[in-house]
ARSI Arylsulfatase (Phainopepla nitens), 573 residues
Amino acid sequence: MAVYALTGFSLVSLLSFGYLSWDWMKPSLVADVATDPMEKSPPPTFTRPPHIIFILTDDQGYHDIGYHGSDIQTPTLDRLAAEGVKLENYYIQPICTPSRSQLITGRYQIHTGLQHSIIRPRQPNCLPLDQVTLPQKLQEAGYSTHMVGKWHLGFYKKECLPTRRGFDTFLGSLTGNVDYYTYDNCDGPGVCGYDLHEGEDVAWDQSGKYSTFLYAQRVSKILASHSPKEPIFIYVAFQAVHTPLQSPKEYIYRYRSMGNVARRKYAAMVTCMDEAVKNITWALKKYGYYDNSVIVFSTDNGGQTFSGGSNWPLRGRKGTYWEGGVRGIGFVHSPLIKRKRRTSWALVHITDWYPTLVSLARGNLSNVQGLDGYDVWPAISEGKESPRTEILHNIDPLYNHAKYGSLEDGFGIWNTAVQASIRVGEWKLLTGDPGYSDWIPPQTLTNFPGSWWNLERLTDGLRKSVWLFNITADPYERYDLSEQRPDVVRTLLMRLVHYNRTAIPVRYPAENPRAHPDFNGGAWGPWASEDDGEEWEGGWEPLKSRNKKKKCKICKLRSFFRKLNTRLMSNRI
C-alpha cells in the first residue's frame, strides 16, 4: 500500500487550510453557469467563416485561474470562460515543443519525430517541412494568418520560420524562453543572443518593451489594419508565464501579501496576461470582429511548481505525464456557440484544434492524411459526445529507461522501462519513468520549512514501472490499480504497441556550433542554407567581416545598457 510522507505540516494542518478538502470542484468554481433567462436570441448563424483567435499561455498551472479556485486574479479569463464553454477534460503535452507541434500539425509527436524533449536553440531541427500546418490550411481557405509570440518549433533554416510555415506576419521569439524586457536568451554559459523577430528580421527596436504588453498591442494593430469582412486567424502564443519571473512592479504590488516570493511574481505575471487578453477582446469588439469570432484559450503544459506555478489538486508538474503535467486549462468563447455558459466534460486533446478550426473555416481536410485530431466543434458548441475516446500522451524511446522496467513486466509485449503514457476511455496507463510524482498544494504560506514543493510525497513506487488509474473516478491519481486489473493493463499495453508501430524515428540531432549568436550578428536566427540537411555539420570559423565584428561588439554593449536601463526603470522585484 502506498505510504505518504508529509514534510513540515501534518495532514490535519493541511485540512485546516482546506488543501485536502477537494472543494475545488464545488459548483461556484467549475459547475455550469445557468443561461441568462433574458438571453433569448439564438446564436448568430455562420454567414461567413469566423475570425479565429487562438491564445496559448506558457507554463500556466491547472490551478492558476480564478474559476479553479486560485488565489490569482484572472477576471477576464473567468468571464470569457463563464460565458463560453469550459473544457474540463482537456489535455495538452507536458512540455513546450510537443504541444505546439501537435497544435500546428494535428498529429501526435510520434508522427512528426518530435517525441523526445524540446527543440533546442543550437539543434539543426525544426517542425518537419513536409507537414502541412494549420495556418497553411487556413490560408487555403482564404484567411489572413498572423502569429504573435513564442514559436519554439525550430529555426535553423529560413524554411523553418513562421513566415515560411503559413503565417503572413510574425512578431515574437524563436527560442524557448527570453528575458521579458531585453529579449536576450542564453543557451548555456557564454552562448547568449537577442531573440525578438519581426517577420524574418531581428526586431532590435522593440527591446525594452514588456513582451505581454507588446504582443497584445500587436494583436490590436493587426485587427485595426484588417477588414472584419475578411476572415482572420491570429495565433497569440504568450511568453507568459514561463520563467524568468518578471512583471511590471504595479502587478507585483497587488500580491504583496503573498509570502512566497516566486508565487508572488508568478501571480503578477498571470494577472498581467489576463489584462492583455482583456485588451485583445476589447479590440475584437472595437474593430467589428467579435460577433463573428471564435476565441480559444489553452495552456501549453502543466505549471512549473518550483517557479511559482500550481497544478493542485492534480499530481505532478510540467515535464511529467501525471495529470498535473498534461491536463490543461482550456475554454472556448464565441457568440457562435449554440449552448453557452456551461462546462464540457467531452474528451479533447490539443491535436483536435487542427481539424476543428479548419472545419470551422470551411477548409478542405480531404487531402490531409494521418491526422490524430478530431473535429470536436459539435461537442463544444452543441454538447454532443466527443468523437475522441483515447489519447496517446507519448512514447519516448530516448528518455532515461526506468531501472526496474522490463519486457517481462509488460507481458512480453512491451518493455515497461520505456517512458510512455496512454488514456483509453476512463483508464490511464503509464510506463517507465513518468516524472516527478508529488502532489503540491498552492504555495501561499510564508516560509515553508524545508522544501515547500515536497509537501506531500509518495514514498513507495520507486521500484515500479507500471501504473494504472481510473481517471474518471480518480482524477488525482492516488489509487494505482495496475495489480488489481492486469487485464486492463494488458489491453492498454497493446494500444501502445499499436501506436509504436506507426511511429517515425526520433529527430533529435546534435547541437551545431554554427548556431552561436556571435556568428549571426548577436541574435538567434537561421544559420543553415537551403541545401543543408538536418544532420548537416560544417567546419565553421568566426565571421571575417570587419563590419560584422564591429556589430557584435556594439550588440554586446547595447545589451548591457538595455539591461541596466530596464532595471532602473522598472525596479523589478
Observations:
- The two ends are 45 Å apart (CA to CA).
